[in-house]
Design brief:
With 439 residues, the protein is of the alpha/beta class. 36% of the residues lie in helices and 17% in strands. Strand 6 (120-125) and strand 7 (130-135) form a beta hairpin. Helix 2 (36-45) packs across helix 13 (420-433) and helix 7 (237-246) packs across helix 8 (248-273). It is globular, with a radius of gyration of 21 Å. The two termini are 15 Å apart.
């Protein structure tokens, strides 16, 4: 088969046909990038000039992958809101939601939960002994043996000094709607602050237009909203799971407001950047290691019709492919998402119960694209030898790649103590072994 450019290659794969090779993703989403410590080690291993990771999510410690590595790993995708070349501006401008789902940082001009910052600064991780670039308005301070991440007077996240990633404040019991007991309490929450401003959308439009015209990458907007996960953050995990069963009037009111925000933002995204991007993403971790967080019946009652409304709007008003990230053992829910109109499921958590690659491909390979599942970041990459990693990747490609419908990526963000030689082996194997026909 003739060599294809990235946009053609990806469309063919998403249509469940075989392109020239498997499309490769490294860094285009919030769940397929690399930790700053691993990034430092990777560049050194490749004998590239030392440069600190530029971090697009300080709480989760997500690296904006530089152009050298995108090219080296033959990447086909790029985050439309990246902060490194190739792009038209390196200004950091994101909705606060990206860093913290419950932080009401209101921009003084727009009144929206947004962060805009034209400057970057270095921060030193003392335990890992590495530097990273973070937006100048965000501080990471040492308090009582923990790192606390602040945006002025707002706490975004917390983590131990020995940790390489941090957790948002909702994981520490800061849940704005924890005490809500009536639908009026829900109504009074600052929902409108999470609706995108026209200034932010215009910023995205200029970026998207530039990247579309000046690169061959497939543009991805990977986090357009969360439904279940946002409700959990607002109410608290156990409280929300109880709400879904015992306080359904309250739960429905919360979900209705969440959907109002998400649909507003999605409609605006389609209007402003829909002609430039190819993939729009959502994230809802609905699984545990052992199974779904909720029953199939409860999913159908509380969530399915909402996803259908969201996905059908996107399908009716754009040509975008819909991506959903959900960790865990979600096999029983995949058919429900397919019925709701989902195109792409991510990440295929190989370590979770029932997420068997052969079963997934056999049952759903013709109906949905698997984005991820190319290498296990939990049990294999940190511990295996390079030849074992290569065999691991080859075996997964043999399962997922035939007849298309597969985007190569690791099962999640690559974390310490993953050796850099294993990272290189993953993407080298994917590129060399992922040529069609797969043998």
């Amino acid at each position: 088969m003739n060599f294809m450019k990235s946009r053609e290659r990806v469309i063919v794969a998403l249509r469940h046909e075989e392109p020239d090779r498997i499309p490769i993703d490294f860094g285009s989403t919030h769940v397929s990038t690399v930790n700053p410590a691993c990034y430092r080690d990777l560049r050194r291993f490749l004998r590239l000039k030392d440069r600190p990771a530029r971090v697009k999510d300080v709480v989760a410690q997500l690296t904006d992958v530089d152009a050298e590595l995108l090219e080296f790993f033959h990447t086909d995708f790029i985050d439309v809101n990246r902060h490194l070349p190739p792009t038209n501006t390196e200004i950091y401008y994101r909705d606060t939601f990206y860093q913290c789902m419950v932080c009401l940082n209101k921009d003084p001009e727009t009144g929206k939960a947004e962060i805009i910052d034209s400057l970057w600064k270095l921060w030193h991780h003392s335990y890992g002994d590495f530097y990273e670039e973070i937006p100048s308005s965000i501080d990471i301070v040492d308090e009582g043996g923990n790192y606390v991440i602040r945006l002025r007077d707002i706490t975004l996240g917390i983590g131990s000094r020995s940790s390489f990633t941090f957790t948002p404040i909702d994981s520490h019991g800061i849940n704005p709607l924890a005490n809500a007991s009536t639908t009026n309490h829900v109504k009074d929450f600052s929902w409108d602050a999470f609706k995108y401003s026209d200034r932010y959308l215009e910023f995205l439009r200029k970026k998207a237009e530039y990247l579309h015209k000046n690169t061959e990458y497939v543009l991805v907007y990977s986090l357009a909203g969360r439904v279940h996960a946002w409700a959990q953050a607002l109410r608290g995990w156990t409280r929300w799971l109880s709400d879904l069963r015992l306080r359904k009037t309250l739960a429905n009111a919360i979900l209705d407001h969440i959907m109002d925000v998400i649909l507003y933002n999605v409609k605006k995204l389609i209007d402003y950047i829909g002609e430039y991007i190819t993939v729009i993403g959502f994230a809802d971790d609905l699984g545990t290691e052992e199974g779904p967080q909720i029953s199939l019946q409860l999913f159908r009652e509380m969530y399915k019709h909402r996803y259908e409304e969201l996905f059908s709007y996107i399908k009716k008003h754009s040509k975008l492919f819909i991506f959903l990230h959900s960790d865990g053992a979600i096999f029983p829910l995949i058919k429900e998402f397919i019925d709701a109109g989902l195109d792409i499921i991510n990440p295929i958590q190989l370590s979770a119960k029932g997420m068997d690659p052969e079963k997934l491909k056999k049952e759903y390979g013709e109906q949905i694209t698997f984005w991820g599942g190319g290498a296990d970041v939990q049990r294999v990459l940190p511990f295996a030898k390079p030849d074992e990693v290569a065999l691991h990747v080859k075996n997964l490609i043999k399962i997922f790649a035939p007849k298309g419908g597969f985007i190569f990526a690791t099962t999640h963000n690559i974390q310490p103590p993953t050796p850099p030689e294993n990272i290189v082996t993953v993407f080298k194997t994917a590129y060399e072994f992922g040529r069609y026909p797969i043998r």
